[in-house]
Amino acid sequence: MKESKFYRVIRPLVNAFISVFIHPKYIGLSNIPKDGSYVLAGNHISILDPLLVMSSTKRSIHFLAKDELWKGFKKIIFANLGLIPVNRREKDNFALKEAEKYLFEGKVIGIFPEGTTNKKNELLSFKVGAVKMAYDTNTKIVPFAIKGRYGFFRKISISFGKPIYVKSNNFKEESVKLRNIITKMKEG
What number does CATH give the domain 5-187? Predict the structure, then answer.
């Protein structure tokens, strides 16, 4: 699969927006691999989160995003950004297999395992997709935690943890482990 030219064009605009309006603090950027496949997985507090994650690396990130976004003109934009639509109403094997194809090709997948935005301090239960795709492709997960709130005169930071490998096919248990790692990062 080819990298999206549209993504490469829009990334400098995203970076400028994030730099001028958000002023985030980046922690642990050295934990993000420069090459090879990996899954970026973390908490989800706002619709701005993908832009924040996108601004943290020069790699193109193929985010999994709810299929409700693929309506009208937005469908053209999201498809050209290399995003993968997910049907959240049922188990979506197509989205998982599509993400795994990207990983097998050495690409980066971005996912928010809570499955929705969550403005509460405590993380929701994680869906198993992140750990399953990482296990199936023998790909590492780079956990991240977003802390704070977006807005003028507010502080926001994004921390990246050391890459981890999923060690067993007990995906519910592995998802709990990932959630615990991200919870500690959020609290630290």
Answer: 3.40.1130.10
Contacts by 85-92, CB closer than 8 A, 24 or more apart = 86/129, 88/115, 88/116
Evaluate whether 156 touches 46 at the Cβ level (below 8 Å): no
Per-domain residue ranges of the chain: 5-187
Most confident of 5-19, 61-75, 144-158, 165-179: 165-179
User: What 3-state DSSP class applies to 67?
Assistant: helix
Task: Please report the sign of the dihedral spanned by the C-alpha atoms of residue 111, residue 113, residue 115, residue 119.
Answer: negative
Q: What is the pLDDT of residues 128-182, one digit of tens each?
A: 999 999 999 999 999 999 999 998 778 999 999 999 999 999 999 999 999 999 9
Q: What is the C-alpha to C-alpha distance for residues 32 and 141, in angstroms, rounded to an integer?
A: 10
Distance CA 2, CA 41 (A): 23
